[in-house]
Write a structure and sequence with these properties.
295 residues; alpha+beta; 4-stranded mixed beta sheet; two-stranded antiparallel ribbon; 11% strand
């Protein structure tokens, strides 16, 4: 047979003292309200009352309420200090006027506009992207990088347009050299054309062409067609048997009109047979007459 036991729980409340501690013992019995009476020890002299309360508070901290005389004195002192501070501040706390009043706006028109040099992002997501919650925002990193690169490229083009001059001799005269003997000229054409397009030298010397006289004409036509005849191909191919010995040069069209290909003359003290075996195809002599130089 089941038995049920009913436990009765009643609410209880223990009043706290002035310092937050509960007054009385830990018993659950509710204190009965009593009329407010002044303890007998508070009828004593003020100095004695405070001294006696201090002794009792040391023995039982947080359980001994302060005397009413001390509370009234502290309250009166706080009110006095508050009124004094209010009068010093003209009844307005420091900084209150600046907080509630709008900042003054200057109505004068500046005579000279000052350039804003503060750092800021030039490429940002659209405003609608910021209005979305963080968890619902679409990825924007790649698009921002693409837009930033396009902006930088456009600025570089504008700067380059400003500094470009109509005088073709205003920029440094560039001469470069590359040996194509490892793969020979025929198989090195893609790299040579890429180098011309990227660095745009005035003269690009090509060493160790590895191309015979029978094939150099066709390669010349192919090179000049690939560069839209912006560069002119000059070459010097030896007549020796075996591996073809030759060198060449790609000269920009703006420079080619001032350049002549010179023949390397054999000195009289050297035998012609030795000269023909050592020099032709290995030395390409070009003479350049600058239009501003005295002739």
């Amino acid at each position: 047979m089941n038995q049920s036991v009913e436990d009765m729980f009643e609410a209880w409340n223990a009043p706290s003292g002035a310092w937050g501690g509960r007054v009385g013992t830990s018993s659950l019995e509710l204190p009965t309200p009593q009329a407010h009476t002044v303890p007998a020890y508070e009828v004593q002299a003020p100095g004695t009352v405070l001294q006696d309360w201090a002794v009792r508070a040391i023995d039982a901290p947080f359980f001994e309420p302060p005397p009413a005389l001390a509370l009234s004195s502290i309250y009166d002192q706080l009110v006095t200090n508050n009124n004094s501070h209010s009068q010093e501040c003209q009844r307005t706390l420091p900084g209150w006027n600046e907080l509630v009043q709008p900042a003054p706006v200057s109505t004068s028109v500046p005579t000279k506009l000052v350039e804003d040099t503060s750092l800021r992002w030039a490429v940002q997501p659209p405003k609608a992207w910021f209005d979305q919650p963080l968890g619902q925002r679409e990825p924007m990193g790649h698009e921002l990088l693409v837009a930033a690169r396009a902006r930088v490229a456009k600025q570089n083009e504008e700067v380059q347009t400003l500094i470009d001059s109509t005088d073709i001799w205003s920029s440094p005269f560039t001469v470069a050299f590359i040996s194509v003997g490892f793969r020979r000229l025929r198989f090195s054409l893609p790299g040579v054309l890429s180098l011309l397009e990227e660095h745009r030298p005035d003269i690009l010397f090509l060493g160790d062409l590895g191309t015979s006289r029978n094939h150099i004409g066709r390669l010349r036509q192919q090179i000049q067609a690939d560069v839209d005849e912006e560069w002119i191909f000059l070459s010097d191919i030896g007549t020796t048997t075996g591996y073809p010995v030759g060198s060449g040069a790609l000269v920009h069209a703006s420079t080619a009109r001032y350049i002549r290909q010179m023949e390397v003359v054999c000195p009289p003290e050297i035998a012609g047979e030795q000269w023909s075996l050592a020099v032709p195809g290995r030395i390409l002599h070009l003479e350049f007459d600058h239009p501003d130089c005295e002739r």
